[in-house]
Q: What sequence folds into this?
């Protein structure tokens, strides 16, 4: 809301400096956004919150100033002289849509002379950025910016049969508005019509046909009260935003309608001449009077943390326009003015008293009682995960939860349900090269596609060593209620398959050193058929890791090798050892034994390892894989050599060579029996 | 072993050793000689020493004396040679070793600056007694609007201002079943209070969504920190104190904080908090005393408990601290960017 300094002076003394004024207004709720000097006046831009439509006029702002600086407020009292000719002889008004238009008043002035507005009015309108049209139109605007109530002036000669019918729009009905563009109406709109056609889009904009022009002699002044939602919907749909719709959307003061109408007529008579028909047409609901509110003084301290005495509080409320009907040490009873519909409860009065008294009076150094906050186990686990992944060389990325459908289709290991779609796409979130992939409107079911895009961007920027992870939710549709939002951890790396798998193994064992990860086949087009697997933890799917297939790389425009993985946070967190317990460490030396087995190509490490594990018994401390070597000349094409090493240790004494040999022999015998493994002896 | 034989072995070892050390002309040759004669495992001196056990007992004393003499003789020949080669410093230099070569690179990843900011915020608020809580990002109308005292007619519900979840057209779901991406973390207030009797002192950090077109200062997804404290006797003064402590902690030094009236449906009084930074007041976020309608919606008695809530934008706090100018950089995730933090 832009207010003119000179205009405000009509209602309230402005003895203070400009800076002091805007500071006090900011600190009491009208945030100062800037001031421009215009031809000896100042245009002061104030941010008016949606609960304060009364400040969408100069009078409302002047009232705030009067309260803040404890200075009198002068409000005009319009009493336009009426002619004997009754309005009802010329005009009638009917509301057919009482849910859209609550109240409609009309006054009629006959014999006006259209011309320019007086200079003082032109100056004020110019300061606040309103383009002058002619005296009658300017006056209706002027009064709106004075009190906040929108008004409309019709050329009464164009109102067929002198009939105003307030009704719902009809399908395909069209109107040319005063901006000379044509708008198509529909039944959700509120239309002001005469006996044949629409003459205005109610509360939004007048029609071109009935607008005031130089030939106009009779003027119908509309002051009405429209439904907020109806006006907002129409204005939004037609993209037709006016100062009028802005005010109706925020609600106007029904009890102030008549004042605005009289004020408008008074100024027209004064500056455009003519005679005002006697009476007013006033149809629809009359405003309901506001109810008194009891403010207990104890509530001020209970909510604001400071004491304010009742006489100060009562003075503030009275100055704000409330009618204080009772006052004691315990409480104040006050009835809000009609233009303050935001005041209906005790707490609303607490705020009014507090904000005028000044929030700067509220201390910022009170004793806050101590409370021991708790760190949840899931937070601790997530912290650990991030710690391990950064230690492994991965940078954390953060990407949007919403992705294009094309990406969404590339990988969805957690659900077969189609992704949720949002009502409008996210705009401006894609890099230039990706802007042809379609609307960004699917809630992601996996993080991997987003990270592959990040990888592409990094390739494009010539960045090497791109190792990324993200911990975030994915959104899985559920059959009833809200969707599931499980946390996932995704990785995308330049390294090879086993490097990434090793990172996950490190992660798993960091969360719980006793965890056993098992590897299973998986089948996803985004992964290479061989270099990919599902990982399970305790029989549950932990996640997937794989090298991006040629087709996958094409989908995301990748040139270099990329390994991707995604694992489930809950499955991992379930295993978490939050507080590790001490375990006795053997003080006896370990014995290491190496084995070089020749086995069939088809024998998988996991099987061999399991046999060694079982054969090793309690002396086996660890097994490590060393390498696989193929010597086709010596062993044949379908054989491989697996070199592994075990560490043996006893908790009770130093292992003897015989003990170690016994374990080794068991390992060799069982590997032979179960996997046909032969030991390379040379 | 006869004594004479033992002494002879010592003698020849000493002679050879002195000769070898005197001949040594580099660190390498000296080291080779040292290993040959003085090596702890298989050095020649050690080898002779091992044989002392076989000398007759009567001669052991003589043998031992001679062994010690020989040892000293060889050791001093070694020291002499070393001194000769190191110019008296006693330190053998290796001219080939270049300590200025870079260390073997160990790549350590970085946490995203938003995560780092969130961790810092949790840390500060944790010290002030606030426990972290979470909630869903896809919300129903009740938690995103109704319970927060946002009426049906409120513009905050406008379809253009929210990412609603699209439902199949033939559905007969009423509006109440419509879901949306939460537009604020205030929803978590409701979820926590529904399930926890007072007192509650929580923060919630997470993603929120609003349909702004991405530009240097906007992104349709961003993060908020929500704070909520409800107990007997929690006032606007507590809010001001907590915000001041927070600002002092996060921004450092003596950063002034002010509150000024504003409007939110879920707080009354509502305030906007600002901090003074770089010579101007910067918006911190919205806050206020929890509206009695919100307390009632979750089954709290507004006559018995009161509280405050606040919501701060995480991106803005992160950007001002690290001097990041374009919010989109945070979500592009170039590794050169990530590695700056």
A:
């Amino acid at each position: 809301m832009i207010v003119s300094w000179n205009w405000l002076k009509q209602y309230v003394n402005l003895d203070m400096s400009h800076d002091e004024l805007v500071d006090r207004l900011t600190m009491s709720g009208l945030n100062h956004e800037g001031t421009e000097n215009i031809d000896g006046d100042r245009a002061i831009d104030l941010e008016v919150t949606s609960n304060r439509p009364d400040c969408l006029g100069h009078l409302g702002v002047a009232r705030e100033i009067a309260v803040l600086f404890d200075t009198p407020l002068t409000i005009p009292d319009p009493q336009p002289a009426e002619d004997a000719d009754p309005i009802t002889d010329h005009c009638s008004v009917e509301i057919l849509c009482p849910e859209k238009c609550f109240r409609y008043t009309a006054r009629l002035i006959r014999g006006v002379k259209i011309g320019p507005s007086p200079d003082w009015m032109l100056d004020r309108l110019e300061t606040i950025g309103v383009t002058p049209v002619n005296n009658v139109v300017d006056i209706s605007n002027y009064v709106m910016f004075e009190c906040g109530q929108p008004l409309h002036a019709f050329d009464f000669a164009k109102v067929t049969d002198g009939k105003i019918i307030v009704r719902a729009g009809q399908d395909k009905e069209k109107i040319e508005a005063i901006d000379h563009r044509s708008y198509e109406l529909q039944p959700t709109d509120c239309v002001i019509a005469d006996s044949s056609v629409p003459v205005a889009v109610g509360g939004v904009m007048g029609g071109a046909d009935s607008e005031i022009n130089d030939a106009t002699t009779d003027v119908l002044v509309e002051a009405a009260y429209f439904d907020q939602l109806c006006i907002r919907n129409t204005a939004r749909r037609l993209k037709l935003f006016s100062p009028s719709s802005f005010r109706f959307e925020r609600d106007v003061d029904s009890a102030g309608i008549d004042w605005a109408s009289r004020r408008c007529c008074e100024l027209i008579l004064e500056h455009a001449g003519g005679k005002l028909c006697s009476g007013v047409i006033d149809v629809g609901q009359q405003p309901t009077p506001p109810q008194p509110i009891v403010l207990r003084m104890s509530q001020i301290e209970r909510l604001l943390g400071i004491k304010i005495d009742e006489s100060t509080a009562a003075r503030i409320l009275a100055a704000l326009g409330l009618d204080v009907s009772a006052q004691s040490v315990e409480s104040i009873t006050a009835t809000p003015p009609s233009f303050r519909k935001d005041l209906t409860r005790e707490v609303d009065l607490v705020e009014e008293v507090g904000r005028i008294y000044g929030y700067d009076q509220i201390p910022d150094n009170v004793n806050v009682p101590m409370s021991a906050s708790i760190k949840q186990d899931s937070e601790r686990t997530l912290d650990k995960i991030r710690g391990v992944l950064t230690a492994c060389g991965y940078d954390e990325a953060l990407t949007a939860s919403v992705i294009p459908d094309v990406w969404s289709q590339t990988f969805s290991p957690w659900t077969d349900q189609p992704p949720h779609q949002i009502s409008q796409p996210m705009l401006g979130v894609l890099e230039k090269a990706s802007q042809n992939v379609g609307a960004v409107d699917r809630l992601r079911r996996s993080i991997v596609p987003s990270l592959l895009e990040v990888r592409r961007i990094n390739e494009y920027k010539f960045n090497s060593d791109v190792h990324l992870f993200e911990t975030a939710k994915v959104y899985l549709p559920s059959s009833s209620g809200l969707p599931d939002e499980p946390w996932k951890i995704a990785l995308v790396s330049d390294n090879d398959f086993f490097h990434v798998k090793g990172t996950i193994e490190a992660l798993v064992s960091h969360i719980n050193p006793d965890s056993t990860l098992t590897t299973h086949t998986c089948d996803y087009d985004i992964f290479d058929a061989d270099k990919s697997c599902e990982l399970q933890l305790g029989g549950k799917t932990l996640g997937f890791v794989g090298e991006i297939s040629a087709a996958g790389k094409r989908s995301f425009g990748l040139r270099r090798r990329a390994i991707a993985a995604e694992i489930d946070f809950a499955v991992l967190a379930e295993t978490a050892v939050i507080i590790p317990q001490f375990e006795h460490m053997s003080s006896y030396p370990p014995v290491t034994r190496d084995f070089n087995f020749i086995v069939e190509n088809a024998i998988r490490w996991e099987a061999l390892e399991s046999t060694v594990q079982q054969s090793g018994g309690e002396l086996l401390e660890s097994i490590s894989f060393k390498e696989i070597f193929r010597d086709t000349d010596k062993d044949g094409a379908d054989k491989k050599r697996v070199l592994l090493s075990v560490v043996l240790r006893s908790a009770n004494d130093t292992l003897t060579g015989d003990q170690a040999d016994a374990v080794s022999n068991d390992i060799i015998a069982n590997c032979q029996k179960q996997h046909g493994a032969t030991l390379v002896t040379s | 072993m006869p004594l004479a034989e033992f002494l002879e072995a010592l003698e020849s070892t000493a002679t050879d050793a002195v000769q070898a050390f005197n001949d040594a002309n580099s660190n390498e040759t000296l080291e080779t000689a040292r290993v040959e004669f003085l090596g702890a495992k298989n050095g020649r001196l050690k080898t002779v020493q091992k044989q002392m056990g076989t000398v007759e007992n009567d001669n052991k004393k003589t043998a031992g004396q001679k062994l010690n003499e020989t040892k000293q003789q060889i050791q001093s020949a070694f020291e002499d040679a070393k001194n000769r080669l190191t110019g008296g410093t006693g330190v053998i230099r290796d001219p080939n070793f270049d300590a200025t070569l870079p260390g073997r690179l160990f790549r350590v990843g970085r946490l995203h600056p938003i995560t780092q900011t969130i961790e810092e915020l949790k840390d500060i608020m944790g010290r002030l007694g606030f426990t972290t809580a979470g909630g869903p990002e896809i919300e129903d109308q009740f938690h995103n609007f109704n319970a927060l005292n946002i009426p049906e007619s409120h513009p905050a519900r406008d379809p253009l201002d929210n990412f609603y979840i699209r439902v199949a057209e033939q559905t007969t779901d009423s509006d109440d079943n419509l879901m949306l991406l939460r537009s604020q973390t205030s929803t978590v207030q409701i979820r926590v209070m529904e399930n926890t009797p007072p007192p509650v002192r929580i923060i919630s950090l997470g993603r929120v969504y609003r349909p702004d077109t991405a530009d240097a200062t906007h992104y349709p997804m961003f993060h908020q920190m929500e704070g909520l404290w409800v107990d007997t006797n929690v006032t606007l003064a507590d809010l001001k104190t907590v915000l001041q402590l927070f600002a002092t902690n996060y921004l450092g030094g003596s950063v002034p904080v002010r509150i000024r009236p504003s409007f939110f449906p879920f707080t009354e009084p509502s305030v906007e908090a600002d901090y003074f930074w770089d010579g101007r007041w910067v918006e911190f976020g919205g806050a206020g005393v929890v509206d009695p309608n919100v307390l009632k919606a979750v089954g709290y008695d507004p006559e018995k408990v009161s509280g405050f809530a606040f919501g701060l934008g995480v991106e803005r706090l992160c950007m001002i601290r690290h001097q990041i100018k374009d919010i989109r950089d945070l979500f592009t995730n170039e590794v050169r960017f990530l590695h700056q933090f």
